[in-house]
Amino acid sequence: MGSGGLNPFELEELAAAYDRWYETPLGRFVEEREMGALEQAVAVLSREKPIVEVGAGTGRVAAWLAQRGFSVTAVEPAAAMRRYGERRTEGLPVQWVAAHAYMLPFSDNSQAALLFFATLEFIAEPQRALREALRILQPGGFLLVGMLHAQSPWAALYYWLGRRGELPWSQARFYTPEELEELMGMTAEACTEAVFCAPQACEPFEEADQAGRRAGNAPALVVLRWRKP
After folding, report:
1. Which of 25, 78, 111, 199 has the fewest CB atoms found within 10 Å of its own CB?
2. pLDDT for the residue 1
3. Bridge partners of residue 73, in order along the sequence
4. DSSP E strands: which ranges in the chain?
5. How high does pLDDT run on average in the chain?
6. How many CA atoms lie within 13 A of 173 on its CB side?
7. What is the pLDDT of residue 135?
8. Which residue ranges form the domains of the chain, and what is each CATH number?
9. pLDDT of 198-220, one tens digit each?
C-alpha cells in the first residue's frame, strides 16, 4: 500500500488496522481466497529466482511467498509498514528495502519477477510505476499485479469511505483489468480472480461467495500477469 501524504502516526494506525482486519473471520476468508488467486499466478515462476514485491506494506504477501519457497525483496517506502513487515518475516528469506515505486534501486534488466499487490491503487502515477517495473525486469521476466476491481462491491464501499475522508481510501483510485492493460500497453497473458461476496457477507462465507458469483458480482481481486518481451 502506498504511503501517499500520510504522516507517521497515521501510517502506524493504518498498519495496525490493516492487520487487525485480516484476523477477523471475513478477513481470514478473503485472504485465503486472495492468496489462492496469487498462487495460480505465480505457478509459472521459478523458486530459484527472487521476487521483488513493490509496496510490500506489513509483509503479509511477502511472508506468504517466502513460506512457499520464494525469496523476496520487499520494497516499502513507509517505515511504519516496514516495521510490521520486518517482524512478520523474521527468519524468512525476505529482504526489506526502503524505496519508492518510481525509483527502484535495481539495475536495468536485472530482476526475474516483480509484484504489485493492492499497491497501484495508492500510487499517484501508476503508469510511471509500471514503466519503472518493466525497466528492472529481465526480458522474459514476469510482472504481476494484484488489483482491487473498480466494478466490485468492495470498490463501491471503498469509494464511499473515500468520499467520507476515511484513510487510506480517500487517496485511492481503482481500475478495471481493461484499464490496467491500457496503462501497460499490453494484454495480460493470465488473469485470476477471487472474492465475489459482498463486504457485508456473513458466514458461511463459501455460500456467500458462490451467491455473489451467481449474481454477477465483479471479483474484489484480480491478479494479472505479463511477460516482458
Report:
1. 25
2. 45
3. 52, 95
4. 51-54, 72-75, 94-97, 111-117, 137-148, 190-194, 221-227
5. 93
6. 10
7. 98
8. 8-227 (3.40.50.150)
9. 999 999 999 999 999 999 999 99
d(CA 224, CA 75): 20
Nearest Cα neighbor of 142 from 36, 2, 43, 218 is: 43
The whole-angstrom separation of Cα 41 and Cα 156 is 25
Backbone angles phi, psi at 158, to 5 degrees: -65, -35
The helix/strand/coil state of 74 is strand
**pLDDT per residue as tens digits for the range 125-135:** 999 999 999 99
> Grid coordinates 513507509 are at which residue?
78
Q: Which residues of the chain have pLDDT under 50?
A: 1-5
The residues pairing with 222 across neighbouring beta strands, listed in sequence order, are 147, 193
Tell me the three cell numbers of residue 228. Answer: 516482458
In 23-136, DSSP assigns E strands to: 51-54, 72-75, 94-97, 111-117
